[in-house]
Batch of 3 targets.
Target 1
Amino acid sequence: MKIAVVIRQVPDLIEPLEVDSTGKALDLSSAAFVLNESDDHALEQALLLKEKHGGSVTVLGIDFGDVDSSLYAAAAKGADQIIKLLWGDPNRTPPPQQAAPMYAEVLRPLGPDLVLVGVQAHDELDGVLPAELAVCLGWPYVGVVRGVQAANGKSLLVCKEFPGAVMAQFEVRLPAVLGILGAEQPPRYVPVSRIRAAMKTASIAEQQVAVPPEAVRVEVARLYPPAPTERAEMLTGSPEEVASRIAALLEEKGLLR
Amino acid sequence: MSASDILVLAETPRGNLSGMVAELLGAARSLATATGGQVIAVLLSNDGTPFVSGLQGADRIVLVNHPSLAEYSPLPFLAALQAVIQAQTPRAVLIGSTSIGWDIAPLLAARLNAPLALGCQQISIQDGQLAATCSLCGGKMLAEVRIQQAPAILMVLPGNFAPANTPGKAHLETFSPPVELSGGDSAGVVFRQWILPPPGDIDITTQTILVGVGRGIQQKENLEPIQQLAEILGGAVCASRPIVDQGWLPTTRQVGKSGMTVKPKLYLALGISGAPEHVEGMSGSDLIIAVNTDPKAPIFDIADYGVQMDLMDLVEPLTQAIQAKKAR
């Protein structure tokens, strides 16, 4: 099976996020970037399918942030081909509606049987990339996927997550796009030494893509961090002091029995 | 039909009307009051009749009954809803931020070239324009957006809108989409079966005390002292999604949008940032105590008590303090 995986760089939520001078967008110059978590799971799911059924894994990412590192890490994990899409503006990421045709342009000649993308990137506001891509390619789509099995050469059995740890199983005709929430096992760890080795042995294929016009359908009037509601009463002191306060609180509320 | 109408997708996964529908109808009612339009509930099923009583907050209920809609499948549902929208030409379509919503809303927007807003917490009409406040970056940012183009597809976060309480005289009608729902493109994804979680694990929805762990625990080994703390408290350990994704706890312990909804007497949130997807599943807890190193973590917005501290510094003294109280 020929599998393609799309990976994105997103602001690291561990680091503080700032709003830029327009007041309408994140200040990307001050943000640190990491691989989008569900894209990491998409890559893991692709590698699991390859290990089980053979085939190849191609990983694509748009030129932004530290995408080179993510692509080399993908190669170190077992990706066969890594491709960087050059779209002329490495200082930002295109919104999903604009990005989807760019990915589709690269994917069509590759002819994958399956495209896996994380179901969500936390900085998406007005589009969901895997769904946009599926419509762009004219292929079937299921999102919130947490498990993929090859049924036969023409279809897959896909588990979609519902509340209460319930799964709906679907048969999905290939070629298809899946929005991955979680892989069947945690994304594999790859040591830095192997990533460094991949940087010497693997090469990133750079591909210029046509940039479709950006259709702004949702206008951002203001972006801001939510004001603290100050609902929580903060308990301060040493760990022992705080622990004692909490224990007293629980006793007072009849929760220690 | 009118471009001022507000349409609501009423989901019925596994044969149950989604708990979000009443909220969506409530949000739609306040919008429709501002636009002067009607609230239209759309129910896609093989037989929607049993769900009609739950949709009385609408002015009109549109039933699309078809064998291909007996169980959820993205493509027939999408084709049916798209046909309803094209017939009704609403101002906005409200869809829950649910597993089904995450398929249907973006696919619909892409197919219709319609505007889509994710994570809507507030929706209103301002100066004649549709306005929404949307949560992004795991709840660390809010975006106020304006949308001119109709229909706007709005994915609504649960827990933000009062349920509709309009007593019902909703007009019931059926609609036969002029599209193929069982073959062609709609056959690209076919529902096979529901897979229920394996029995055997504890049911966290019945626990009165839960110790929730998030990314802040950093490594699996740190679960052990937290499990001891939960045992001393007489409760159980549950988790946010990243912990389950790592395979450190089973899916039956996951709290949130794609996990369980819990309402314990005590929810001790350790190293949980408070992303909307997690909060959705535990905000109904009687008492929430949150421990996080980040003073701006959204979990402190819903917690009753907060501690800005590395959770692993607190777990052992807290276990000892509780043991001491219990021993008296």
Target 2
Amino acid sequence: MQQILVIGYGNPLRGDDGFGGLAAGYVEKLRIPGLEVIVCHQLNPELAAVLYKSSYAIFLDAVAGDEPGTLNATPVARCDLSSAGMHHFEPGSLLALSQAIYGYAPPAMLITAATRSFDNGAEISKDVKQAAVKAAEAIALAVDAGNFDSQILSNVLLNCH
Amino acid sequence: MKRLTIDPVSRIEGHAKISIHLNDEGHVASTQLHVTQTRGFEKFTEGRPFYEMPGITSRICGICPVSHLLASAKACDAILAVRIPATAVKLRELLHCAQFVQSHALSFFYLSSPDLLLGLDSDPAKRNVIGVIEKHPELARLGIELRKFGLQIIEGLAQERVHPSWVVPGGVNAPMPPQLRERILSELPAMTAGAERTINFFKSAITLFQEEIDNFGTAPTMYAGMVDRKGNLQLYDGTLRFRDAQGAIVKEEVAADDYAAYIGEASLRESYLKAPYYKPAGYPQGIYRVGPLGRLNTIDGCGTPKADVELAEFRQRFGHPAHSSFLFHYARLIEMLYALERIGQLLDDPQILNTHVRATAGVNSLDGVGMVEAPRGVLIHHYKVNEDGGIVWANLIVATGHNNLAIGKSIQQVSEHFIDGKKLQEGMLNRVSAVVRAYDPCFSCSTHASGQLAMKIRLVGPDGALLDEICSR
């Protein structure tokens, strides 16, 4: 069976930045076979040791801009490792690290939700909470269909209720 | 008089800068380490309920929150005046050993290995963990997996990797799941082998650094660390022992609540970091070192088989006590092996899965002190409370502080040996930063840059004219 890795990341104490962790938590509750969920504050190098064992990776993150709650799915390309920071990585640099150290990086998708606020506090806005549910549903459907095409996933994200 | 400034010192936890004063001949006249941040935890925790202290004070650090959590919880145990369940003691030590693995792996592989693997004079733009990954992926993988292993144990036990709330006054708030024990045990042999491979690599590479070994903080000092009743290494419990520069034990069996009789704290004009000293010797003669090298110089033995073999070889090669601060790296690796062996011993103890893991009580003492060995050295939390349990006074002696005077001395020695004030070279100044990194100081848990050195060094003449400058970010 293929191993699909879902990584939700962000600071749960900075409002809507908690989107990644919330959405990943919803995915975990679905108990989908062959799917591993990791929730973390930020992407760090140790994740490469899990990433290389996966057949597909999905990153969940919050972004500024756009209408709050708007979801987007984009394929992640490996980027230049030298652009990586020491304390945290972006999805593309984490894939590059996995490739450099383990000789393999899985294909990956980044699902983002536009936020209303990154202010201090653990409260997530209604729009972003709804986006987290949609994202989890879309991931479940994609896993079920075995299809992670970004266009298809984007359409699913738009049509999830 | 001219002054060089290294600001900030890179690849350390927190912020610091170094001033190097040159005389008119361009030779080093004096040096100063400035820790340029202030935290204030002792003050703003006043009035908080004592049982909140573990959660609050663990926020001091993102690398070693577990150490603050444990020192704080032990101080709270003393306020409760309870003896916590034996299983809770073992679980706390297990958590602590896991933290040593991840913290020492971070220090060695992520922060210091660029100097050791790529060279102290190598291109600063490449002299970072990314450079190590590109040139030595095998070793980088070891570092990542050792750190991941330590973090996974912490997360498995405490539910969170950073700032967990599992350790509480009176014990821990949940027993260990049996499946976690099995998972750790299944991965432990590979991790132990990885730590041994790293030590063997370092032992072969260290011969390339003879000049650094001879000049990186070799001035004799006292040493301090916690030991158990047999005089062996003890990271979670035990009493404090001091050895003098010749290796003689000058004081031992110092209990946590007696620390103030032996440790004084001096304030320095140039730094927000206090400078603890051995009180009977006075300030500044009472300079001592803690942390990996301090501990290995203080103990009689490690108490685990593989680490004891490595300790014997270490002492055979460098004597006892070994004074060069460059050897902090070597000592750190031996301790990582010890922590892995100790994890195995604790997991093999049938008591580890017991479910009675917390004692409860109210305020029974108005004063409590907790002491543990943090990865960087002895960590002491001392609280006084009112009858309702509100904090009325707190004093924290954080591990890096103990080394403050010794780091200053090491900077002076390295600067005198390596710096030619007439023409600066980046490698000279990197050695000054590298001796600070050898101590793995944790000035706070703030971030730092990789890639090009975030460092600016200015050479200014007596008339204030800029003579030379190296600036890169």
Target 3
Amino acid sequence: MGRPAGTFLSDGSLLVLIALATGPKHGYAIQTDIREFSAVELGPGTLYVILPRLERDGLIEPLPAEGRRRPYRITGSGRKLLHAELNQAGSLCKVGLRRLEEAEA
Amino acid sequence: MRLLLRLFPAHWRERYGEEFAALLKDQPRPHRHWLNVVRCLIAAHVDGRNPPATDSTEGGGKGVLVALGLLGLATLAFAAVFVVDASYTALTRVPELLEAMILILPLALVAAVVRAFRRDADQPPRAALPSVAAETFLLAVLGVILVATLRPQLGFFEQSPFELSPWIELRPFHDLLAASTEASRSEAVAIIAGNLVLFTLFGFALALRRGRPGLALFAAIIVGTAIALEVGQAALGTGRPSDVTAVVVRVVGGSLGYVLWRLPQKVAQASGTART
């Protein structure tokens, strides 16, 4: 496939990492946060496809359970990857918008 | 919905079951999400082939337990041989195995490290450690088995070909039962014990490396290897007999290895359920 390094996150993983960027959250808090900042409805099943994979890849880590809910925290490498990913998305946005403007002018 | 949750793999339920059930309970209309849960179920089974690495403290504890268990197993096996084998023939086999290990271990280590780096480029090195360890262990055991089984028998080249029997022995445990001298009986015991110990280690290492192996695949690998070694002995002209006893003993050893790997988990699961 030859994707450049640092761009292997799916859209869902990206949303989850952005949700965790402000601090540890459990599943339901992640869902509501994502709904608020992106209007995306992330189903509970989808969330629990993403969380184990992010955990396996060392991008997030589980904290001790609070009752039956378990909060997750973004790790250092998760933060680094999110940074790279968002920077790349940002430069893509810039190029795309500029081209649209040029075409419309 | 509860039925759906039961269909998740056991290791997944153990780790995420509780919090996932809590999340479903938090949903305003949980039953609306059943298709979404099915998606998660499929992913859990597919991802289950590479289960997430347990956190480092737990992994370390388990690693120590595994090492102690193996040490105990080896000690018991040798003790058993000494009880049965009064003339200590098995002892003469120890340097042979050590020699094989010294030869194989660095090679296995290099191969495992290379593979780990190629496969897990985006994984922190510490997370890859358990899988590297399991891989090294498996390669080392396999290497020792190959060297110990397939290299020419001591003194083989000094023998004239005419002194060798045709050596395809299809009667199980015939060498042991028909042994006329104490020496040939000890030799038969040593061969059986060696095969048993090596394949117990092989079965254990294979289960450890694969995480949660399908039983059919596991059995196919063990039986296939056990038979292939005997065919290999004949094909390479090693001077060792192709013997059905060895195949039987290896399959028993491999199964024992699987049980040894699975048993502690069963016990842990049972005590875990008892506590909640």
